[in-house]
Amino acid sequence: MIKKKKKKLKFKFKKFTVFVLFLDIACIALLILIHTDKFMNFFITTAMTTKSHAYLARTLYDDETINAVLAKNYIEESHEEINLDDVTINNENMFKKKYSSKYERELFTKNAGNDVYKIIRLEEKSFKGYVIGVYDPSDVELAVSSRLGVMGESVNTMVKNNNALVGVNGGGFRDVDGWGNGSFPHGNIIQDGKLVWKNDRGSGELIGFTKDHKLYLTSETPEKAIEHGMMDAVEFGPNLIVNGKPLTVHGDGGWGIAPRTVIGQRKDGVVIILSIEGRLPGYALGATMNDLITILKRYKVYNAANLDGGASSTMSLEGELYNRPSAGGEYGGRTVSNAWIVTNKQNKPAKAPVKKY
Fold first, then answer.
1. CB of 152 within 8 A of CB of 335?
2. pLDDT of 40
3. Rounded Cα–Cα distance for residues 200 and 302 (Å)
4. pLDDT tens, 173-227?
């Protein structure tokens, strides 16, 4: 009996020793990992861009290290003034030309019975999501929460309230500790040629469409933008492509990897919207600014801007959640201040795709 007890104790001691050794090795490996440039760049920029989770970066690193990493990851915008004359809306001939790539062919090969938009699935290495091509830019407009200043609404709700077909989130809003409800937008909002929300402490440049249905990216005041024909606009950024020229991204641009929403326009007027999924371990991590530019260039986007991302990145199809947001999916997506929606003003055939990925 005594020998058996000794053997059991020895066996337990060995297991404990192996366990402690495993923990030691894991801790050493973790310490090495968190001090590699690649991990620091990824972790710090991703944590800091979320704002409400910046404390995660400060848990592992001091301010000097964080500032040094951010100094190596930044963007250079061209500050070039957008030339709207470069965009010539041509809905009649876009389906009759030779296509320059498989992506362009894919975009202009319509879904049966749908002359309004095309949804294309994205399956990339670190992220998944959707490209939405809207053939007639006059079908794109801005929706705002019916209780702006009190409570936001989900993109689903705004799509339903406006009898729209498709919708994605738009500009940002006050999001203290990640619990914002979309009630107080960051920056100005223009709807139907009127300034419906004024906030001089904006979060970027104005992003919107003119009365001629051209995507207008400008640092003007909202009053000046309206004078120059802006009909619908939100504030966010950065501008990713202006007059066909992408911004210069150093490292990951300081924006990390995250879910994203982007709106852009080709020279022929076709509107391209990206809804990128991320922050879902085992499914999708998210996209960098360079990832977005790569996708936009595939579809020959001439002007484009980044919209609010993270947990706000939501896509609705006919009032039903279509993408996988990183939070709030069980409730139909987060409540936000505004959304870009796709309507059907000319009553063109628009049979919604039923396949969900």
1. yes
2. 62
3. 28
4. 987 766 788 999 989 999 999 999 998 766 679 999 999 999 999 999 999 999 9
Cα dist from 111 to 115, 133, 354, whole Å: 8, 11, 11
Task: State the amino acid at position 321 in one-letter form.
Answer: L
Tokens coding 194: 């009127």
Concatenating the DSSP letter of every residue in 295-318 gives HHHHTTEEEEEE---GGG--EEET
DSSP code, position 202: -
Token pair of 161 as six digits: 């309230």
The whole-angstrom separation of Cα 151 and Cα 209 is 25
In the prediction, which pLDDT does 216 show?
98
Mind listing the pLDDT tens digit for each residue in 229-282?
A: 999 999 999 999 999 999 998 887 788 899 999 999 999 999 999 999 999 999
- Contact residues for 242 (Cβ-Cβ < 8 A; gap 6+): 77, 78, 80, 82, 217, 303
Q: Tokens representing 5?
A: 């007890």
238 phi-psi bin (left φ>0, alpha ψ -120 to 50, beta other): beta
The secondary structure of 217-280 as a DSSP string is EE-S-HHHHHHTTEEEEEEE--EEEETTEEPEEETTTT--SB-EEEEEEETTS-EEEEEEE-SB
d(CA 233, CA 208): 4
Q: Are the beta carbons of 173 and 152 closer than 8 angstroms?
A: yes
Instruction: Give the pTM.
Output: 0.85
- My answer on whether omega of the bond before 238 falls inside 30° of 0, hence cis, is yes
